[in-house]
């Protein structure tokens, strides 16, 4: 649907934009059921295993993740119910969400965005965010991988619903000395981070994830969960630095890290070398696990 032919047809808010596409990008029933079961005190690890086991592709991907270097368990985990007991229910929900979201969006065609480049950036931001969280001794640092992975998900909504606007943004990026989210605000009055936050909210996912996605360009604006927002903000900028020179046809303006973000996570730039080293070790494995087979990498 081409609904961005004129200014009058542009959505007035991120909520309106997401509301028009939420059915198209609705999560699989398995993911919704797992989210609901977290509120059921009687749900057991075996119950979760049965529900997730209905989706063989999701099951295989989850077991690959929990048996990867992200967790480093000494013995192999063979079942979802065992994974639940080892990593916990809330951690499992994040992994189910990550795998489900990538699968969902892989089915949405867009001629505007280079999807290979998009998912590479997203996965690398995820591994950097997790490595930063480890450096900061954040509890359950793996959840920051999910936040980093999904931080730009609002871009996919923009490109799908507003392809003409997305093309204009790309054109202005070539001439403007400013990052894409500022150009989005000029054209729309909001940016992809706000759209992504609205989508996470519509999916009824954790508020900490919503804050990280919504505020990854302005972490100081996160009234709740400023730590998560700051970690993803830093990870996004570090990923931009790592990507410099990879795509000679694309000149991207990298947003500098806000000084307050380093203060929030109680780290400084001295950790970047170690974080990059960890991210490089994990990136290829994470990309292969997270992306569907149909997506070229």
Structure in a nutshell:
This protein is an all-alpha fold. Helix content is 62%, strand content 0%.
Word description of this protein:
62% of the residues lie in helices and 0% in strands. The two termini are 28 Å apart. The protein has a single domain, classed as Hypothetical protein af1432. The model has no long low-confidence stretch (mean pLDDT 88). The longest helix has 21 residues, at 115-135. α8 crosses α13 and α10 (163-175) crosses α11. It is globular and about 55 Å long. It has 297 residues and is mainly α.
Which key terms come to mind for this protein?
mainly alpha, 297 residues, 62% helix, globular, single chain, Hypothetical protein af1432
For the record, the CATH class is Mainly Alpha
Please give the domain count.
Answer: 1
Question: How far apart are the termini?
Answer: 28 Å
Radius of gyration: 19 Å
Please estimate the helix content: 55-70%
Instruction: Please count the helical segments.
Output: 16
The CATH superfamily bears the name Hypothetical protein af1432
Average pLDDT rating? 88
Following the backbone from N to C, one meets helices and strands in this order, namely HHHHHHHHHHHHHHHH
Which secondary-structure class do the elements indicate?
Answer: mainly alpha
